[in-house]
Specification:
heterodimer, A: alpha+beta, Glutaredoxin, 41% helix, elongated, B: alpha/beta, Rossmann fold, Ubiquitin-like (UB roll), 3 domains, four-stranded parallel β-sheet
Chain lengths: 160, 439
């Protein structure tokens, strides 16, 4: 029995017996372990939940935070909704694109960093918000970007 | 009306249980448990507290709709909506991060009032910081049965979907499904989570419950103005000097919020417009901000406090681009369940883009408003309606700017708008075909 299987059973125990409520937390846990939700991982989750891989994929594909394709070791998400955009979020995106030599939505050639733009992260008054491996950096300016990229290239493991 | 911050929710901010208790924390819980559930609910009704998520429903009345267990023998659930995703709103982030124990105390008092032992806090997946703080605060209560009682609080993380802030979509998501809204009725009070009676309340609503019990509903109702009692935690963002969250007495003028608390407009620019309550609310021009920040005053201007996200826009903002950016957001977040929203939001973006690029004539402007009409009031939930309402309000209040785009064959800002070329996530979606407006 894999540890993921056991962990998913522990998650299931939190919710009523006949419910599917463990699906989201189980997918999150699986993604933490594997980085993204491949067909094999979806099958593993489905087996642990006693449901089908198709059901798991149907759920996972609805939500923005689940990755159905591989991503880099680190994830950089720049909010480009209005409150961030009017104070320079696009310049921050472009600075990341230039430092990482990839476009938003892509992963740097060394596989280290996936860059993407996201909808409102809920930190509008502290714009621009950049989520680096799911933790918010506030008041980010284009000038701050080289340092963030250097830090990520310095190879720290992705947290959550 | 005073124009300084009035703190009852954010007061004595601490994440520590010892400090919270030292400042009188969890005393309101003991007070509430000495009352019957009906008495607690009555206190809320007396307080005239209305829901802080945006719909503004009277909280005490909502609680009173839960049928007693002897008439409907099913477990009751309290589900707290911490899926804060409305562009411009970040108050629940602040409440969970700074006063987690006040929030938990509110959960426990509400659980007592609605006779429930299972509380689920549905927190948006992106809020790793607040999640960790909340879980840490709950961990501190592990050995405090005197506080927890028989109540179990489960923190359930979302995974990135604005629509899950809609209460029935949230319940679907919490049940492990795609987060698509249900048709109502039945309402959650009768058949909500796991088809059982469920109260869904916003984070700020819940965090306002302990001070109400502590000071008494009647005392709370002396704060604020008619129809909007108490305080509100407002989020100020955009082109403003001091962006952040401020707890104010309801009814403070929007001008004072922006200039006294927010510090006004930076960089020597001038105010152009204000989104008063999160992206889904009708825009106000610079001449409309001498208005009380309360339900009734804003309703007179056909807008609302929504989730209290005040987005300040200076004179560099192109309103057509504002429409594009917000419309792209609704298009991206549409759950796809009903056609007017799924297709309509896409069309609004496409027509606005055509206007922005100077490829549109007068008839596209009519078409834009026609599409708004075909969305508004025809969707299962307010998501599509929101896009239609705000875009129509931009045209109504800034028609000259739309016409200028047509007459000048492009954006009159000539690339100098603060929203120029912003890359929205929707632009990265290769799997969804982009609607082309027929010539």
């Amino acid at each position: 029995m894999s540890s993921l299987y056991d962990e998913i059973q522990a998650i299931r125990a939190v919710y009523p017996d006949d419910s599917e409520s463990a699906v989201l937390p189980a997918l999150r846990r699986a993604q933490q372990e594997h980085g993204w939700l491949s067909a094999d991982v979806l099958r593993e989750v489905a087996d642990a939940l006693e449901t089908t891989p198709a059901y798991c994929k149907a759920v996972a594909s609805f939500y923005d935070q689940f990755h159905l394709a591989p991503i880099g070791e680190h994830l950089v998400e720049v909010c480009t909704n209005v409150s961030c955009a009017v104070v320079g979020a696009q310049q921050v995106v472009e600075a990341f694109e230039s430092e990482l030599e990839c476009r938003a939505g892509e992963t740097s050639a060394d596989g280290k960093v996936t860059l993407r733009t996201v909808e409102c992260l809920g930190g509008c008054g502290w714009a621009t918000i950049v989520a680096v491996d799911h933790h918010y950096r506030t008041h980010v300016k284009a000038d701050d970007v080289p340092e963030i990229v250097q830090e990520l290239r310095g190879d720290e493991q992705r947290g959550d | 009306m005073n124009n300084v911050a009035t703190e009852i929710v954010l007061k004595d901010a601490t994440t520590s249980l010892a400090e919270y208790e030292a400042a009188g924390g969890y005393a309101a819980l003991a007070q509430a448990r000495a009352l019957t559930p009906e008495q607690v609910t009555d206190e809320l009704i007396t307080s005239e507290l209305r829901g802080r998520g945006g719909a503004f429903f009277p909280t005490g009345r909502k609680w009173s709709f839960v049928p007693p267990k002897n008439t409907l023998p099913k477990p009751h659930y309290l589900v707290v909506n911490a899926d804060e995703s409305e562009p411009g709103s970040f108050k629940d982030n602040e409440i969970l991060s700074r006063v987690p124990h006040r929030f938990i105390e509110g959960c426990l008092i509400t659980a007592h009032a609605i006779d429930c032992t299972n509380v689920f806090v549905y927190i948006r997946g992106e809020y790793s910081g607040p999640y960790e703080i909340l879980v840490g605060a709950l961990e501190e209560l592990r050995d405090r049965k005197d506080i927890r009682g028989d109540v179990t609080i489960v923190v359930h993380r979302g995974a990135g979907a604005y629509i899950c802030g809609e209460e029935t979509a949230l319940l679907e998501s919490l049940e492990g499904k795609r987060g698509q809204p249900r048709s109502k009725p039945p309402f959650p009070a009768i058949s909500g989570l796991y088809a059982s009676p469920t109260v869904v309340n916003n984070v700020e609503t819940i965090a306002t419950v302990p001070p109400i019990i502590a000071m008494g509903g009647a005392e709370f109702a002396k704060l604020g103005v008619e129809n909007t009692r108490g305080t509100r935690v407002v989020s100020i963002s955009g082109n403003v000097v001091n962006g952040g969250n401020y707890e104010i007495e309801a009814g403070m003028s929007l001008r004072d919020i922006i200039y006294d608390l927010g510090g006004g407009i930076p960089d020597g620019r001038t105010l152009k417009a204000v989104v008063p309550g999160g992206s889904s609310t009708v825009i106000l021009t610079k001449d409309e901000i001498d208005v009380g920040y309360d339900f009734e005053s804003l309703a007179k201007l056909q807008t609302s406090m929504g989730s209290a996200g005040i987005v300040v826009l200076d004179d560099r903002c192109c309103i057509v681009q504002l429409g594009i950016r917000f419309s792209e957001f609704y298009e991206h977040e549409s759950c796809g369940k009903c056609t007017p929203c799924r297709e309509g939001t896409r069309w609004l973006t496409a027509i606005l883009r055509k206007l922005e690029d100077g490829r549109a004539g007068e008839h596209e402007l009519d078409l834009l408003l026609d599409v708004c009409d075909r969305i508004n009031g025809k969707c299962l939930c307010p998501l599509g309606d929101s896009d239609a309402i705000i875009v129509a309000s931009y045209v109504a209040k800034f028609r000259d700017e739309f016409v200028a785009h047509i007459e000048e064959g492009g954006c009159p800002f000539g690339g100098a708008s603060s929203l120029d070329h912003v890359l929205a996530p929707v632009a990265m979606h290769t799997h969804s075909p982009v609607a082309e407006v027929p010539a």
